[in-house]
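Project outcomes to date are best conveyed with an example. Our students and postdoctoral researchers have been running inverse folding experiments weekly, and each run begins with a structure described purely in tokens. The record below, which covers 651 residues, was selected by the lab manager from last quarter's runs and is presented without edits.
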């Protein structure tokens, strides 16, 4: 141990979960920092347990450490108990691998998976001794970078981040290392402005200080680059061939229990299912599959190296992988060395052909809960959101699962979707009750949890123009569902509508929201994803203090002409395509997956010479996509923590 460890160690017997701060996990690296190399601190701005499994961070950690001109370490936000001790003893934020002070790195890079972590970014910077506002930083301060899905609307964090990475990070971090390394070796000639200018010329990098925003009242009139060579629109970066990036090769094995505590192997990136609420699906297009043989090797070697007995084959819709049957059978039957007696999780998996195929394979090893995500309570509304699941599909899948020995079902829904009426909302209770009834045919222990989240319209989706439901309206709908599920054996859990409102402010906010984020942080608002720390009053007061209207940012419908704060960032999707899809949604028309239909010219394939991925062997016969569903095994869908804001559980 080096650097700060002698000052950190004495604090650890006074905090909850001291193993969060030790490092030295299997897969951890102890890089040598050389003055001529660029040092990166990759930070997940939430706890160790939430951040450690993050695949994006682990991939970049390995890629950077393989370079001769870079060294990378990891950092996670200290929980409030350790933070208080650190502040009282002037111990700065530190890296996990060598306990080096964060402020000594050349780059501090944050992964922004969701908006409610924004205040933690400011807190980590402040704990590092780095000015939270980008304009106050000196040449010798680290370059502050952010990547992840939330950066597709970077504007709320524009005051604090020097450079955003938009899209896949695998190649960009190398390009950035070269620019920053050259600047550092030159003696930082031209100052911070020079290196930020050069970074802004890299495809997929957005440097907010290189742009001026002009307002017309509350509306945005123009976003203008400050230099003629800075692009007026920043294109996302996309790696065309996932097979060239078989990472992580050495997945980290945590010292304490973490979320997604298993081997994770990404089998493809992107999704063309076209669910209109789903930002991840839209911004990660086009679909790029990992070669089957490479996926098999990564599973076999990963299991051997980590000692895990469970592997998740991750993607946005795992049954759509063209080799899914072969891959799962190989793992379950132990065809690969180190496999056999291994549990398989398939996040976000459609249930059509799967229920009688792969589900029966998987339950031979492990019987846990199943999670389905119908998202809306009625067929009408599922057409609006383009989640084309019929009730018959769902009930057949549930029946198949119960008949195979599964006992617990979980259904995910969104409330507050465009055109939603009370009948649609109440349909959630009906679906859940019917699932319990089906289960009772097989076992008295059958149960169903309906988990309900408030819908937040996201940038770069067809719903980006929609005015979200107010928190009062969402609360009314939750109340209606509580009444409707008092009988029938259904458990109801829900996301706090007030947290949904705050997500909405940050999701579609503009640069003016930065001051709100700073006020909330200065008033003590950290870990806003955690119910014990979230206080909506901080946000309401900060918005009022900045003279900003919450409804203007959240419940207001946008027009097609309005310049959105993220319009100068492109995920490759034509705005016309998104607008047309929004109109189709309002007309209740579904849009089948483009892998089985002619191209809709959404725009994303054009630049990458990427061919359509062939339909999976588990696609419905004839290639119809009218029955697409999501299914997860063992709760493998994106985690929504019961300890997060205001999630209540009825009965
Ligand atoms: S460009 Fe065409 S084929 Fe490619 S993702 Fe868009 S709709 Fe599908």
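After processing, the design step wrote out the following sequence:
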């Amino acid at each position: 141990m080096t650097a700060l460890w002698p000052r950190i160690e004495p604090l650890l017997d006074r905090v909850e979960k001291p193993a969060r701060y030790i490092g030295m996990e299997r897969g951890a690296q102890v890089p040598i920092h050389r003055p001529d190399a660029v040092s990166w601190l990759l930070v997940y701005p939430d706890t160790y347990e939430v951040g450690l499994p993050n695949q994006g961070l682990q991939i970049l950690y390995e890629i950077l450490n393989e370079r001769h001109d870079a060294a990378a370490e990891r950092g996670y936000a200290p929980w409030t108990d350790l933070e208080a001790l650190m502040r009282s003893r002037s111990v700065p934020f530190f890296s996990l691998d060598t306990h080096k002070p964060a402020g000594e790195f050349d780059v501090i890079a944050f992964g922004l998976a969701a908006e409610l972590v924004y205040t933690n970014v400011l807190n980590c910077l402040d704990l590092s001794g780095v000015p939270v506002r980008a304009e106050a930083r000196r040449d010798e301060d680290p370059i502050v970078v952010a990547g992840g899905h939330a950066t597709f609307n970077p504007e709320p964090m524009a005051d604090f981040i020097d450079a955003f990475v938009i899209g896949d990070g695998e190649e960009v971090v190398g390009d950035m290392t070269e620019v920053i390394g050259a600047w550092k070796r030159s003696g930082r000639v031209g100052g911070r402005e020079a290196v930020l200018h050069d970074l802004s010329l890299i495809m997929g990098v957005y440097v907010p200080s290189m742009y001026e925003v002009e307002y017309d009242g509350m509306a945005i009139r123009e976003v203008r680059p400050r230099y003629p060579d800075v692009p007026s629109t920043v294109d996302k970066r996309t790696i065309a061939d996932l097979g060239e990036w078989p990472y992580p090769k050495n997945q980290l094995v945590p010292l304490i229990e973490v979320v997604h505590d298993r081997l994770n192997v990404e089998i493809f990136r992107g999704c063309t299912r076209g669910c209109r609420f789903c930002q991840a699906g839209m911004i990660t297009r086009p679909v790029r599959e990992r070669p089957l043989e490479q996926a098999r090797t990564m599973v076999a070697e990963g299991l051997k190296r980590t000692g895990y007995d469970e592997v998740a084959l991750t993607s946005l819709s795992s049954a759509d992988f063209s080799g899914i049957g072969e891959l799962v059978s190989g793992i379950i039957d132990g065809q690969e060395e180190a496999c056999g007696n291994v549990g398989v999780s398939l996040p976000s998996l459609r249930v059509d052909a799967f229920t009688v195929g792969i589900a029966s394979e998987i339950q031979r090893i492990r019987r846990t809960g199943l999670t389905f995500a119908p998202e809306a309570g009625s067929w009408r509304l599922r057409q609006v959101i383009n989640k084309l699941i019929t009730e018959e599909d769902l009930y057949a899948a549930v029946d198949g699962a119960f008949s195979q020995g599964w006992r617990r079902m979980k259904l995910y829904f969104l409330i507050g979707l465009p055109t939603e009426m009370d009948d649609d909302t109440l349909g959630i209770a009906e679906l859940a009750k019917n699932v319990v009834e089906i289960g009772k045919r097989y076992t008295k222990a059958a149960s169903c949890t309906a988990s309900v989240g408030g819908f937040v319209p996201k940038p770069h989706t067809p719903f980006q123009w929609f005015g979200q439901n107010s928190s009062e309206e969402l609360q009314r709908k939750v109340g209606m569902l509580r009444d409707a599920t008092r009988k029938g054996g259904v458990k109801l859990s829900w996301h706090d509508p007030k947290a949904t409102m705050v997500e909405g402010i940050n999701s579609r906010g503009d640069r003016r929201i930065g001051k709100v984020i700073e006020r909330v942080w200065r008033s003590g608002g950290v870990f806003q994803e955690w119910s014990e720390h979230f206080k909506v009053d901080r946000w309401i007061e900060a918005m009022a203090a900045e003279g900003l209207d919450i409804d203007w940012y959240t419940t207001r419908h946008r027009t097609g002409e309005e310049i959105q704060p993220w319009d100068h960032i492109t995920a490759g999707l034509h705005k016309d395509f998104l607008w047309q899809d929004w109109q189709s949604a309002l007309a209740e028309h579904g849009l089948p997956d483009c892998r089985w239909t002619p191209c809709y010219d959404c725009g994303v394939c054009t630049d990458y010479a990427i061919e359509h991925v062939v339909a999976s062997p588990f696609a419905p016969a004839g290639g119809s996509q009218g029955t697409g569903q999501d299914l997860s095994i063992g709760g493998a869908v994106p985690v929504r923590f019961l300890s997060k804001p205001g999630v209540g559980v009825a009965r």
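The chain has two domains: 5-235, 242-512+548-650. The chain is about 30% helix and 15% strand. The training component of this project remains on track.
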